[in-house]
Amino acid sequence: MSQIELGWGADPSPRYEQLAERFRPVFQKIRAGAIERELTRQLPIEQIAWLKQSGFTALRVPESAGGLGATLPELFNLLIELGEADSNLVQSIRGHLGFVENVLNSGSSSYRAKWLARLGQGEIVGPAWSETGDARQSEFSTRIERHGDGWRLNGRKFYTTGSLYADWIDVGITDENGKGVSVTLARSAPGVTVLDDWNGFGQTLTASGTALFDNVLIGADDIKEEVHFRYSPAFYQLIHLATLAGIGRAQSGEVAQQVASRTRTYSNGNAPRAAQDAQILQVVGRLRGAAYSSGAIVLHAASAIQRAFDAHLSGDQERENQAVAIAELEVSQSLNVVSDLLLNASSTLFDALGASATLKPLALDRFWRNARTLSSHNPRIYKDRIVGDFAVNGTLPPEQWRIGVADKSAT
């Protein structure tokens, strides 16, 4: 059935249904094993391979390079559908999707050609940027040092989401002059170790743990200046919101199925079956309303990010500056609305069912755990302040930000 027939609203483009039909059988296969993987902690290595083979990871890659040339609204709508199947999968390729976007925005034609060829073949790139502990905001503890005609990379990263499933790892580093640079190296390169040590209570299968780099040899040509596409904060945040919208669809669907099949009911209820109980139906309706509203918000914000991308391609600096600021503003305005909808819904869903809904085999708790984990990224408490500052003072949102120990000069 089409998105409209399912009640999720209009497609983001005239060709969307044709594009989505290519992936929906894959999504169904992924969803079929989602609960078992959650309960037994099976990493979705095979499922990531399905996405690669289907062309999903090359959605934004131009058709001329072997991709599908999807627009950003098309991409985000498909991420919602994938998130409905298994939210772990969306987050696992989040860093890859950002890398693709960085390549598309690159001003170097040779760099674009090299990487679009790899990405068009389905190769995946994982992130290794975040550091924990005493890492500073202004620089990375992960370093490169000269070694003959090349360089050696040493360091430790965390939150390397999806890198365990990737062919390449994009690493943020500081060079010997204190300058921020990056290098994208093969995950199988000698000295590279990716650990399955993510122990968060949510999004448990995203491989968001540690990557170690021990004297990894890299060539001088592989080092590039640390540059992020300008709408990257909004883009990365909107992937989280798309994942949340997918969680909303999944939990509303699973609860509806449970209610429809439920034969036990309470003597003080409103009907002989839960499926006929007006109060139970009201709870299910609220779950679905949260999912619908979240998806609609994500698609609207995706159009703002598309405008930022289009403005970049136009070469009009003033137009790009405005489009980037507005995209960040729109996503910031969306964040707490979407996260509150899903956090509330993932708790309220148990009101539609009996105590048996808390039994582990149903894994209904995963929805709240995953929603809570996603909502803890990129602190949402700051987003309302940023939006309020714009509304009251006309202050534009910050484009880029870093996490770490603040420099003394900043305290």
TrEMBL record:
Residues 18-123 form the Acyl-CoA dehydrogenase/oxidase N-terminal domain. This is Acyl-CoA dehydrogenase. GO terms for biological process: fatty acid beta-oxidation using acyl-CoA dehydrogenase. GO terms for molecular function: acyl-CoA dehydrogenase activity; flavin adenine dinucleotide binding; oxidoreductase activity, acting on paired donors, with incorporation or reduction of molecular oxygen, reduced flavin or flavoprotein as one donor, and incorporation of one atom of oxygen. It comes from Candidatus Pantoea floridensis. PANTHER family: FLAVIN-DEPENDENT MONOOXYGENASE, OXYGENASE SUBUNIT HSAA, MEDIUM-CHAIN SPECIFIC ACYL-COA DEHYDROGENASE, MITOCHONDRIAL-RELATED. GO terms for cellular component: cytoplasm. Belongs to the HpaH/HsaA monooxygenase family. Residues 242-377 form the Acyl-CoA dehydrogenase C-terminal domain. Keywords: Oxidoreductase. Transmembrane segments: none annotated. InterPro entries: Acyl-CoA_dehydrogenase, Acyl-CoA_DH_C, Acyl-CoA_Oxase/DH_mid-dom_sf, AcylCo_DH-like_C, AcylCoA_DH/ox_N, AcylCoA_DH/ox_N_sf, AcylCoA_DH/oxidase_NM_dom_sf. It comes from the Bacteria.
